[in-house]
Amino acid sequence: MRAGVILPGNCRYAIVVSQVNSTYKWKQGVFQVKARFIPVIAVFLLIFGLVNGYIGWNGWEYLSSLFNLEHALPYGIIVGILSFSWILGRLGQHSASPIRQMAYSLKYFGSYWFAVMQYSLIILPLADLIVWLLTLASVEYKTAVASVGTVAFILLASILIRGAWNAWTPIVRTYKLTIPKQAGSFQKLRIGVASDIHLGTVVGNKHLERLVRHMEEMKPDLILLPGDVIDDSIDPFIRRNMAATMSKLKAPLGVYAVLGNHEYIGGHIEQYIAEMNAIGIRVLLDEKILIQDSFYIIGRKDLAARSSDPEGRLPISELTATVNKALPLIMMDHQPSDLEQAALNGIDLSLSGHTHRGQMAPNHLITRRIFELDWGYKLKGSLHAIVSSGFGSWGPPIRLGSRSEIIQVELEFKPEQ
Fold it and tell me: Key word Transmembrane helix present in the record (predicted)?
């Protein structure tokens, strides 16, 4: 109802009834959508429970063989809590203290448990097969379980320890590239890139300080953050004052970021952008910035914007329609899903993340099939495409066949003669 317009009572009543009916239908629609997910959730929880039951049973067989344990209930409770700790932590992370702190702890330990689950499902079937073969060869069952179980435990522990080291010990990976264009007065440009920081319950200020330290040592002209700066909820970022640490990221030509799918999952886009703006980090939302009349930075919304953002996201052709393509074009696009269009529309350097290179081998075999380039460097026409495995981690802070990395891009501009 517009201000200054007076309607008869029956009209006002009709409008109110219409609004109530619309609200009811909307809520009913949401309920129906959620209701359709109930069977999916039920199947997931069943499979999840069976997997953890299998892991728990193997653990009990091993421990009881070593220590002659008889009462499984305390052990079962511990395994049950660990199995569902991430889910419980996720559900309770927005609660008031002290429940929130408990939820953070549950989510932290639950993240590690995901890695235990994955590698247990790789190791345990083989271990069980070996135990069965040993019993066929007349080896006592408890002896077989204790021996094979010890080897399996050492293998699993070694994987987790090495994986944690890979996740918490970042490396700087350098790419030296040449763009055949004039970039104003710039002959060279050093860019520091950190994708997929995933700040939240698991990755916090301590790991973020490592990023700051490496960037200070690198002394880049420009810092770019291609998405997933936060993990999902923005609450840990605010409550633990991570913005204060982020604000230490400095570069003469500025610090720029784009949205990743996890910013959309968290659903606090406006608040996140405000937090970044307050510390001098510009979040580009399908925008282009001309830096000192010399080169462009183009920042795309994440692919998730197609379904999560009412405005969607612009195609690369529209983003580049009004730029001067005689100047270098540097684009951040969180997911490396549009390299063909990037090459066709004159992008010189594309920077992405998202894939984590699978994070925990052999998951890289999946990302390799999904993306044209799931990690590393590729020259596609005149496009230099770089996909980072990311600085932080999603879920368990475990990396195997993958490293926590910061990208250093050394660009040289050499116009064709």
Answer: yes
The residue type found at 36 is R
Gap between the Cα atoms of 80 and 59, Å rounded? 12
DSSP of 251-283? -TT-EEE---HHHHHHT-HHHHHHHHHHTTEEE
Domain boundaries, the chain: 1-168, 172-413
CA distance 367 to 358: 6
> What is the layout of strands, in order, in the sheet containing 329-332?
287-291, 295-299, 329-332, 349-352, 383-387, 376-380
Question: What is the secondary structure of 70-118 as a DSSP string?
Answer: ---HHHHHHHHHHHHHHHHHHHHTTSPTTHHHHHHHHHHHHHHHHHHHH
In the DSSP assignment, the letter for residue 386 is: E
What is the spatial distance between Cα 50 and Cα 43, in angstroms, rounded to a whole number? 11
Give the pLDDT of the chain (417 residues) as one tens digit per residue.
333 333 333 443 333 333 334 334 433 443 444 567 788 888 888 999 999 999 999 999 999 999 988 899 999 999 999 999 998 888 887 777 788 888 889 999 999 999 999 999 999 999 999 999 999 999 999 999 999 999 999 999 999 999 999 999 999 999 999 999 999 999 999 999 999 999 999 999 999 999 999 999 999 999 999 999 999 889 999 999 999 999 999 999 999 999 999 999 988 899 999 999 999 999 999 999 999 999 999 999 999 999 888 899 999 999 999 999 999 999 999 999 999 999 999 999 999 999 999 999 999 999 999 999 999 999 999 999 999 999 999 999 999 999 999 999 999 999 876
Please name the helix (run of DSSP H) or strand (run of DSSP E) that holds residue 205, with its range, or none.
Answer: helix 205-218
Collect all residues with Cβ–Cβ distance below 8 Å to 186 and sequence separation of at least 6.
292, 294, 295, 413
- The backbone torsions φ and ψ at residue 159, rounded to the nearest 5 degrees and listed phi first, read -60, -45
Which residues, 6+ apart, have CB-to-CB distance to 297 below 8 Å? 222, 224, 256, 284, 288, 289, 291, 330, 331, 332
SS3 329: strand
Look at the chain and count its residues. Answer: 417
What superfamily would CATH give domain 172-413? Metallo-dependent phosphatases (3.60.21.10)
Helix axes 73-92, 9-67, angle to 10 degrees: 150
- Residue for token digits 């702890």? 105
Contact predicate 339/332, CB 8 Å: no
- Tell me the C-alpha to C-alpha distance, in Å, between residue 21 and each of 18, 29, 32, 33, 349: 5, 12, 16, 18, 51
